[in-house]
Specification:
The protein is an all-beta fold and 217 residues long. The protein has one domain: 6 Propeller (Neuraminidase), CATH 2.120.10. Helices cover 0% and strands 44% of the residues. It is built from no helices and 20 strands. The strands form six sheets. A four-stranded antiparallel beta sheet has the order 4-5-6-7, with no helix packed on it. Strands 8-9-10-11 form a four-stranded antiparallel beta sheet, with no helix packed on it. Strand 13 and strand 14 form a beta hairpin.
Length: 217
């Protein structure tokens, strides 16, 4: 099944493998209050081992944890929908993924950092600061992806410093690739990154209207 985060419509849609519509949600399955509706959700990930779902509910400044039936389990982040730079809270949570141990990684649009949590949202650590050096990020961070086979984190550094940075799960910088431009291996407003089962890295190069594929060395 395919899940699509439909940010502009404040919902998540589910399709079968051939694109046939199955269902949609504007809030967790077992919650009725309008104050629990999604607000500009941005990303989601399914833990393939447990079926648990995590969603960055950006407008509500929180991360939601749901079961495989889309029923609410818990949430963390803001209690009142306000932005924050405190540990464990968010300023527009954006990308989200999980590693092989079930730990959760979240990046934000407005805070130049990656935060790591356990499977129940307990803060573990964070790394990053504003800048263009190794392990630094520019504002408007895009999306991250975890290569669960190697437990390496790929972070898209966005339009202001178009590159992909790679970290281990402890936040140690390992490498980066990409510069600004339209040549091979260059980016303009990169947005998403994904890794296939062979370790190839796919980058959505939005500004150049293309997809690029890289092999891992």
């Amino acid at each position: 099944n395919i899940y699509v985060v439909d940010r502009g419509n404040d919902r998540i849609q589910k399709f079968d493998e051939n694109g046939k519509f199955v269902k949609q949600w504007d809030r967790p399955e077992n919650i009725n209050g309008t104050d629990q509706e999604f607000a500009s959700p941005e990303d989601m990930v399914i833990n393939q081992k447990t079926g648990v779902i995590y969603i960055t509910d950006t407008g509500n400044e929180r991360v939601l944890k749901l079961d495989r039936n889309f029923s609410y389990i818990l949430e963390w982040g803001s209690d009142d929908g306000q932005t924050s730079s405190e540990r464990g809270k968010f300023d527009h949570p954006h990308g989200i993924d999980v590693d092989s141990k079930g730990d959760v990684y979240v990046n934000e649009l407005e805070n130049p950092r990656i935060q790591k949590f356990d499977e129940n949202g307990k803060f573990v650590k964070q790394w990053g600061s504003e800048g263009k050096g190794k392990g630094e990020f520019t504002p408007l961070l895009e999306h991250l992806e975890v290569d669960s086979k190697q437990d390496m984190i790929f972070m898209v550094d966005g339009a202001l410093n178009p590159r992909i940075q790679v970290f281990d799960t402890n936040g140690n910088f390992t490498t980066s690739f990409g510069t600004s431009g339209n040549g091979d291996g260059q980016f303009s407003k990169p947005e998403h990154v994904n890794i296939d089962s062979s370790g190839n890295v796919y980058v959505v190069d939005r500004g150049n209207q293309r997809m690029q594929v890289f092999s891992q060395c």
